[in-house]
Design goal:
four-stranded mixed beta sheet; alpha+beta; 2 domains; 23% strand; 8 helices; Arc Repressor Mutant, subunit A
């Protein structure tokens, strides 16, 4: 593997220093232990993960009832606090604090999310894994399996690395919860706040449909607002998340 280590981000260099050359080599618990942080999984009230530090030792608690991908991201998030924010002795991070969709904001929590994203899905391994494969949620699920990451984190990583205009959007029955689009996605268009009744995502949010839909080419006006969207098309694919929200990946057709 030809990697210019000097050009890697700080979390990627951390992985590299621990011998991570393949996705299955990423052992966040071992890295935490090497840094003096013990990891425990237990029931937590009011937060997804917690860091308590004393001197050069720390305990990272991760919510026992979260899924594996979520737990790994939470661990990466708290590990980021331990490495980057050592002046504070404790962090109680809520579900809204921890998430790959918040990695671009300019806050301490967002910085920890960005660090965690690179620990779980480092670019130097993701890029060769992606290759020239078509970006959709099927690929996000495969990436999640390979890297032990959540489908949300995987979808966001794919969209950010994609050369095609693409976005990840998350809706519940009431509203658009959040979205992320890549640099190729024109700012002339905006994501609609409510799900259109003719989409698979609507059926998942309001009906009994579960699992993942098939990629579908459909009118961009079902998803986007802006001039001329009724003349355009997008590829869409949706999946119902464990908490009940619906995640959709959009790419311009």
């Amino acid at each position: 593997m030809a990697v210019e280590v000097a050009k890697l981000s700080a979390p990627e260099r951390l992985l590299w220093s621990h011998g991570v050359r393949k996705p299955e080599h990423i052992d966040l618990e071992a890295i935490a232990g090497a840094r003096g942080a013990r990891v425990i999984y237990r029931k937590l009230d009011g937060c997804a993960a917690r860091l308590v530090a004393a001197g050069d030792q720390a305990v990272i608690s991760v919510a026992l009832d979260d899924n594996k991908g979520r737990q790994r991201f939470s661990l990466g998030h708290e590990l980021a606090h331990w490495i980057c924010d050592a002046k504070r002795s404790s962090f109680n991070c809520s579900n809204s604090d921890i998430g790959p969709q918040n990695a671009e904001a300019k806050t301490v929590e967002a910085n920890a999310n960005s660090f965690a994203s690179q620990l779980v899905l480092p670019d130097y391994l993701v890029e060769p894994w992606m290759g020239d494969r078509k970006v959709n949620l099927d690929l996000a699920q495969s990436m999640g399996s390979a890297f032990q990451a959540s489908v949300t984190a995987s979808a966001l990583k794919l969209v950010r690395r994609s050369k095609t205009a693409a976005a990840v959007v998350c809706h519940d029955q009431r509203r658009l919860k959040w979205f992320q689009r890549n640099l190729a996605f024109s700012s002339d268009f905006y994501i609609l706040r409510e799900l259109h009744q003719d989409t698979a995502a609507f059926e998942m949010a309001f009906g009994a449909a579960k699992g993942i839909s098939r990629p579908k080419r459909e009118s961009a006006s079902l998803w986007l607002g802006g001039s001329g969207t009724y003349r355009m098309e997008v590829w869409s694919q949706s999946i119902k998340l464990p908490e009940g929200a619906v995640l959709t990946m959009l790419s311009m057709a």
